[in-house]
Amino acid sequence: MEQIPCVNCGKFFIPRNRSQNYCTDLDCQRSRKAAWQRYKLRTDTDYRTQQQLSQQKWLQDNPGYWKRYRQQNADKAERNRVLQIIRNRRNRQLKTLTDSTHNPLIAKMDARKPYHFNLVGRFYLVPVIAKMDVSKVYIYGVSDTYR
Predict the structure, then answer these.
(1) pLDDT tens-digit series, residues 49-95
(2) Distance CA 140, CA 132 (A)
(3) How far, in Å, CA of 115 to CA of 113, rounded?
(4) SS (H, E, C) 54-108
(5) Phi then psi for 67, rounded to 5 degrees?
(6) Over the stretch 11-27, which tens digit does the pLDDT of each residue have?
(7) CB 92 within 8 A of CB 112
(8) Spatial contact of 20 and 27, defined as CB atoms under 8 Å apart
């Protein structure tokens, strides 16, 4: 079988089978498992329910864990408080924008963010969802004078 790049780290490796997209490095395997868990939580209601019950049981078996954690990691707790204030403000602003009949949020189909970087070189397109081979792509720069 031909070498392919790992989805997580980008290093080339020889897969054991066609469905293997991650190399055998420990960090890449953790990333693979985390991606699988995120997928299962999104798509499988039974799995999501079991995870919630498991977390509730663990919290009942470990009372006061978060209080001790915040005391032992005061800098992390303070950072989280500041970030939570920002998240709350953003959510409040979004809620007022969507609730008001005068200013509803409208999706612009032609709006895009301008990216100001030079993306030139050789790249490998690695499939994440579909099972297909990796494609090698060459991207060449074009002068702004031709626009």
Answers:
(1) 999 999 999 999 999 999 999 999 999 999 999 999 999 999 888 88
(2) 25
(3) 6
(4) HHHHHHHHCCCHHHHHHHHCHHHHHHHHHHHHHHHHHHHHHHHHHHCCCCCCCCC
(5) -65, -45
(6) 999 999 999 999 999 99
(7) no
(8) no
Contact between 50 and 40 under an 8 Å Cβ cutoff? The reply is no
Distances (CA, A) of 131 to 17, 24, 125, 127: 12, 19, 12, 7
**Cα separation of the two ends of the chain:** 43
Please report the pLDDT score of residue 125 as a whole number.
Answer: 67
Q: What is the pTM of this model?
A: 0.51
- Residue pair 139/121 in contact (Cβ under 8 Å)? The answer is yes
